[in-house]
C-alpha cells in the first residue's frame, strides 16, 4: 500500500513537470521565434548641433529598413560626456543643456516593443569636439550671485580669475543665458593689467520665484598672443540667490524672557519658505549663541541683569534649494549691565567728591590768609641794575685823545662839542 502511494506521487510530479514544459512551448516559443525573425535597425543621421549657449540639439531618424507594423518604437539615449545621463523617448530629437568647453558625446539606439518583449538595436555615436584654445587660458574660480531687488527684478553679479596661461592683453567677455534670452555684460571691473575680472547686471531677464531653473554663464576671450579657451558653467538660480535681510526686526523683554519678532525677507516666496538664524551676544560675559528657527519669532529666557545684542538672518528652506544666507540684520540692544552701571555711578560720585573737596580747601586757605604763605610772592632784587637805554644822553666832546687815531694825525684837530642832532 505504501509502495502504491509513493508511485502515485511520483507520477503526479512528472505530470506537473510535463504541463510546465508544454506551457513554455506553447506560450514562450512563438514569441522567441518571432523576435528572432524581426531585425532591429539602429537610427540613422544621428547629429549633434549647438543650438544655444550650453545647449545641444540631438537629432536622428528611424532607419527606413525598420519594420513598424504592430510594434512600439522608442529610442534609448545615453549622454556620455560631460555628465553621464540616460533616458528614453519616442521623439527623434532631444535638447540637452550642458557645458561644452570640454566637448560633448552621446549614443542612441532603437527600442522595439511587442507583446511585452523588448528588442534593441546597436548603438550609434556622435561627438562634438572641444572648442579651440590654449591650455590654462580659460577663466577659473567663476562664482555668481543673484539678488531680488526692491523693484521686483533680479540682478546678477559674477567674478572670476584670469587663466594662469592667459597673456596680459587678454580681454574676457561674459554672456548669460536664461531660457531663450541671452545678454552680454556691459559693466566690467578690471584688474591691474586691464583684464575683465568682474561683471554686473543691475537688471536681468531672470524670473524671480522660479524653481531650479538654470542660468548659463559663458566667458570667452581674445588676445594677440594666444587663442583663449572659452569656459561655461551652469547655476541653479535658487542656489546662487543672496536672500534679502529679514524686515522689521523688533526685540523686547517680557518678564525674564527676551522676545524677538520679524517679517520675511523681500521675496516672491511665501513666508513658509524660509529658515532663520538668531544671533545673541551677552555683552557682559561675552557668550555668543546662534539658534535656528523656522518661525518669525524667537523667545529665550535670559539674565535680565545683562545687556544683549541681537541679529537675525534668513535663507531658503522648503520651497527651493538653499541659497546664500542673507546679511545679518542691524544690531539691536536690550537689557542693561547693572554691575557696570554701578561702577560708572561710583566713579562719577568719586570724581564729584574729589572736586568738591579741593574747592573747599582752596576757599578755606584763602579766607585764613594762608594762600600767601603757601604761595609767597617773588621778592624784588635789592641791587638795582643800570638802565641800558637811558632817556637822557650826556653831551660829549670829541677830542683827539679819545679818537682811535695815530699820534701824528691827532695834532691840529680842534675839539668841538657834539650836538643833540647827532643822536
TrEMBL record:
Where is the Type I cytokine receptor cytokine-binding domain positioned along the sequence? 141-239
Q: Where in the cell is it found?
A: Membrane
Membrane-crossing ranges are: 343-365
Which Pfam family is one of this chain's hits?
IL6Ra-bind
| Taxonomy, superkingdom | Eukaryota
Topology with respect to the bilayer: Single-pass type I membrane protein
Q: What is a single molecular function from GO for this protein?
A: cytokine receptor activity
Q: What keywords is this UniProt entry annotated with?
A: Glycoprotein, Membrane, Receptor, Signal, Transmembrane, Transmembrane helix
Gene Ontology, cellular component aspect: external side of plasma membrane
Chief site of localization: membrane
Q: PANTHER family given for it? A: CYTOKINE RECEPTOR, INTERLEUKIN 5 RECEPTOR SUBUNIT ALPHA
- Supply the name of the protein: Interleukin 5 receptor subunit alpha
Origin organism of this chain? Phasianus colchicus
